[in-house]
Amino acid sequence: MRLDLREIIEVPGGSKDFECELDTERLDFPSIRAYQSRPFAKGRVYNEAGVLHLEGTLTAEMTCICDRCGAEFNSVKELPLRATIVEEESEELPELFVLDGNEIDLDELLSTCFILDMETKFLCREDCKGLCARCGKNLNLGPCGCGKEIDPRFAVLEQLLDK
Ligand SMILES: [Zn+2]
Ligand SMILES: [Zn+2]
Description:
It is a single chain. The protein has about 160 residues and is of the alpha+beta class. It has helices at about 5-10, 105-115, 150-160; strands spanning about 1-5, 15-20, 30-35, 40-50, 50-65, 70-85, 95-100, 105. The strands form 2 sheets. Strands 2, 3, 4, 5, 6 and 7 form a 6-stranded mixed sheet that branches. The protein has a two-stranded antiparallel sheet with strand order 1-8. The longest helix has 11 residues, at about 105-115. It is elongated.
C-alpha cells in the first residue's frame, strides 16, 4: 500500500493515520511455517517541525518452528514502529526511509522494519531443552533413556569412537 502524504508534507503539526495489511510473500523465513493472518500495522505519520515521523504497531500472528527441538509453536509479535521519512536519500543516514514523490511505500517500510527486528533464534520457549543428541528424543517431554546429558559436540566424537 502506498500512503499519500501530500497534505502533511509541508504542514508542521499535521498528522495522517494509516492501517495496512502486509503481504507475507516478502516475509518468508525458514523458521516461520505460516502466518495465521496477514500481519497488520496501524499508526500515523506526523510532521514535527518539518520532519516526517512514522509511529505505530505491527502485529503478526505466526506458526513457528523451534530451532532447537523442531516443535511447532504459535507466536504473536507486537512490534513498535518508529521511522523517519525524508525527501532525499542520504548516504550518512541510510536507515531513513525516502519519499517517492508525495508518497511513501508503506509495504516496503513495514516489511523492512519487520525483517530488521526478526529474532535470530526461534525457540518454543526460552529454556527449550532441545533433542537428545544420541536418541533424538524431545527432552522437553522428559529425560530420555540415555542417562547423562551429552554435549552435542561430544556426541559427534562419541559416534566416531563407537565405530
Ligand atoms: Zn523447542
Ligand atoms: Zn537420549
